[in-house]
Amino acid sequence: MNKNSSFGKLITIIGIALLSACSSSQPVIDETVLLAYCKEPTEANMENLSKNYSSIINKTRKKGLKQPGIYSDYAVTLVKQGRRAEANSWFNREISEFASSRAYVMQLKRMLIPEFINDNSINTETPTEDNEQQGLTPSSRNAAEKRAASVMEEKENNGKENK
Fold it and tell me: Rounded to 5 degrees, what angle do the CA atoms 47, 49, 55 make?
């Protein structure tokens, strides 16, 4: 057997192993939604960012995964939307799930929602897609539906072109 051939196969196997080991099974935030908010911090973009975090929370919950920081990130988006009591509940959930984040979360609570600094209650109702849809304004819902329709059209058109 040729040494170069064996070495190539070994490198290929190592590459595949590294790719599979590095690929995360944890849902991640949609970078386009985050970048849209960073570029234009509008109410609609904040709503989309919050919805994206809620979706990630649902996906990780369904998979039985725990992702540190996701609850506190979601809570920050809720504070920015004026949903302070709900944000407090998510901050408290972060503390209960990840005790090591207590100092960080308490600092966030001091800065963002000082009126809840001593409130440790947790709302056990997790966000669902139905709850998310109810929280959208009609204009945001229409915009989201139009974007979804355009994405579906692109996929359908690409599928027809590839045939």
Answer: 100
In this prediction the pTM is 0.61
Specify the long-range contacts of residues 144-149, CB closer than 8 Å, at least 24 apart.
Answer: 144/48
Tens digits of residue pLDDT in 108-155: 999 999 999 888 887 655 444 444 444 445 555 555 556 555 555 655
Can you read off the two tokens belonging to residue 91?
Answer: 């901050």
- The contacts of residue 112 (CB under 8 Å, 6+ apart) are 76, 79, 87
Coil, helix or strand for 30? coil
- Which residues lie closer than 8 Å to 104 by C-beta, 6 or more apart? 72
Interior CA angle at 30 toward 105 and 95, to 5°?
Answer: 15
DSSP three-state, residue 129: helix
- Condensed to tens digits (0 to 9), the pLDDT of residues 111-120 reads 999 999 888 8
